[in-house]
Amino acid sequence: MPDRQLYRPTRAEISLAALKRNLERVAAFAGPARVLFVVKADAYGHGVVPLALYCQEERLCHSFGVACLEEGLELRAAGVKLPLLVLGSLYPFNSFMEAIKNDLTVTISSIDAARQVLEAARLAGKKASCHIKVETGMNRIGARRPSAVKIFQELSGQAEVSVEGVYTHLSSADTDPEYTAQQLAYFRETLTELGRTGARDLVRHAANSYAAVHLPDSRWDMVRTGIAAYGNMDGFEPILSLKTRVVFIKNVREGASVSYNRSFRASSPMKIATVPIGYGDGYLRALSGKAEMLVGGRRCRVLGNVTMDMVMLDVTAVERVSVGDEVVAIGRQGAENVTAEELAGLAGTIPYEITTLLTRRVPRAHV
Ligand SMILES: Cc1ncc(COP(=O)(O)O)c(C=O)c1O
Description:
By secondary structure, the protein is an alpha/beta fold. The chain contains twelve helices and 20 strands. It has helices at about 15-30, 40-45, 50-60, 70-75, 95-100, 110-125, 145-155, 175-195, 210-215, 225-230, 340-345, 350-355, and strands at about 10-15, 35-40, 65, 85, 105-110, 130-135, 160-165, 205, 220-225, 240-245, 250, 255-260, 265, 270-275, 290-295, 300, 310-315, 325-335, 335-340, 365. Pyridoxal-5'-phosphate (PLP) binds near residues 87, 224 and 227.
């Protein structure tokens, strides 16, 4: 929670206890493989520093995965001591220097990057640790088998660099078992080839959350989990609730129009509640007229367009609604539950985006 006084009632509550249960569950599936917790993009919008410090304190993971140098530096500055793997491709050259100085493990996906990390380590006067990324079918970053072997050969004899791991990323673990099997087979053969080249004791990893839970063959020595830890995957508990309060109530007549462009028209008299959350908070405009929020334990439809700072809800069926009543945009209230998956389905996106796009205006309260 930021240490400023909060007046506006809109906020995201993040349950650390639920995060703990989720990470323990992933570990129970993955064990003895270690768990790397993917906390890139501000922990998928959940607020990275409190989460990472909590996991470190409670020993809930072996390491963290970040996307870029800046995310790693933020965690180091906040006191995170656990290993940090930068999953992205570092550029420009001086990023390697900064990564090495701050004990960030870098991903090497090309011969060129291998040479750069070596040179950076020499200049920094400090040993660089790296993982080689193997391209098996995502076609984002990674080296095909011959290049991966060359990278290993280039780096393995060098005192300034320690090749600690080798990994790949599955493009369709939850949707395409056949393609996933091909990716895993290519990775397995690459590991064998690296073994022939002299690679020993590398940390081998391929699994994202879905694979960690459902595909034992993908686990090797470590799994990289994001979405399961945040609870937006079947069998896990969502850790984020998005809450606000009613700030205004009105009754409208039949025929009244609501929101921009008269995007909703009342076909009968209605009671409408206005709540202070909008696309300026990351509550997507694509949810206009489709999503529901919870008020008084009931589902209430968003009427018309989501505006930048407010939405209007149909609270006609809610008895005794008052200004100040709690509104849940994501999470539970009474027997009802709105999930990030549900909103993602309505907005034509994925739950990752629903939480990651919550903006800086929404304070994250870690409870
Ligand atoms: C390289 C890499 N590994 C692991 C993950 C974690 O995936 P998930 O959140 O599906 O567990 C991601 C997320 O996008 C990723 O980019």
